[in-house]
Amino acid sequence: MDEKRGRFEAQVLPHLDAAYRFARWLSRSPGDADDVVQEAILRAFRGFDALRGSDVKAWLLAIVRNCHSTAKKQQQRRAFVPLPEEHDAQDGYAMIATTPDPESVSIIRDQKRTLDRLLSELPEEHREVLVLREIEDMDYREIAAITNVPIGTVMSRLARARAALKARWLKDVEGEAREMR
Amino acid sequence: MKCAESLRTQAYFDGEVDAMSAAEIERHAEHCPECSALLQDLQQTRTAIRRDLAHDRAPSELRARITRALDQETAVKSERRSFGWGQSTWRTRAFWVGAFGGIGSAAVAATVAFLLLSPSLDNSMLDGLAAAHVRSLMPSHLIDVASTDQHTVKPWFAGHADVSPVVADFAQAGYRLIGGRADYLERQRSAVVVYQHGAHVINVFSWAAQRTLPKNTTRNGYRMAFWKDRDLEYCAVSDTGWAELMGLVRLLQELGARDAQE
After folding, report:
1. End-to-end CA distance of chain A
2. Helix H segments across chain B?
């Protein structure tokens, strides 16, 4: 095996799951996430020689983020009109909600789905800091590097993102409680 | 009213402050209901997210796509020969991979792949075998059919690979059969048998016999042992010692000999 390829597989590919998760949360579509991750890995491979230091995961996630924003711009340029932020998630919810059997009701209440939906409804700049902090366990400095903003901005965005998620969660629980009555 | 310390409290929660500030913030939170509630909220959110949302993994189809893309990239870069392994396309078929995501590096993998090779490709073949071995160790890449039963694994290959390798569970000898996998190489369907042996890893490759086998060798730190059995050639690849590797090789050879007599 090619020596560079070997090093790349040993150092970068262990973070493929993280790259995939991050891409999923950014694009909110598995198909788009696949394309973004593949592009990111190729770019990472091409740029691998220039990588200095050990922060491989943050470096890869930054590339994923760049690829995502490039893909998004291309989609928009193709006059593709995406649904408003909240829409797709709510449609999915509605589809489940129309099935009246008890099992579906318990699925709706399933915390994982709820959390999944609430997080995906957050604006992208909130979503990405939360995912990086809570799911990928990146510290402030790494998040700042990946999202290309100062650490102070990371802190305030994280605070707003967490507050927004909590507010949505409470609203959701209340809504459900009303339906139950 | 938002407490002026809330950002510092958050930073404390995220492990971003030094010990002195941490002590200060702890004292503050004892007297500030807002910040103590904030700490609880932060912990709740973190617990829920990490429990429910942190476990997605890259699908094996995507891993296979990426492997192919890297193969192409590498082939373009080094302008390798246009035949053989330079443009080889190992593709993992993902049938049952999810079931075994957790096996990871604690597994011994006996990998049996079927390769059509011309006799002059020793070096690139060794590289390819080592690469396939490394790839098989990546999470979610090890197994398509998860089974400790040779009667499940062997028929599965009949449907997913062109050749049928010897398969058996050698658990009593320390080589536990844990499943199989199908790969693609050069438009040829191929198969992979996976064993577990302690904390080490062994790969055994195999292909239709048609060439002179290389001598046993070490490549990129992996040991490789070759042998032939009727119409198939096998290669065991491992990061174990030679003794452990040859132990599995002997068992597979004996099994092949018994099969031949029947």
Report:
1. 64
2. 6-13, 19-31, 33-52, 60-78, 122-136, 150-160, 242-261
List the pLDDT tens digit at each of the 181 positions of chain A: 578 888 898 889 989 999 999 999 999 887 889 999 999 999 999 888 878 766 899 999 999 999 999 988 887 776 555 554 444 444 434 333 344 455 544 544 577 788 889 999 999 999 999 999 999 999 999 999 999 999 999 999 999 999 999 999 888 877 777 666 5
Query: Is residue B77 assigned to a domain?
Result: no
Nearest CA in chain A to B47: A134
**Does any CB of chain B come closer than 8 Å to the CB of residue A93?**
no
**B150 in Cβ contact with B168 (< 8 Å):** yes
Structural domain of B225: 85-261
Q: What is the CATH number of domain A3-77?
A: 1.10.1740.10
Q: Nearest CB to A155: which of B10, B48, B139? A: B10
Query: ipTM of this complex > 0.90?
Result: no
Whether B49 and A130 lie within 8 Å, measured CB to CB: yes
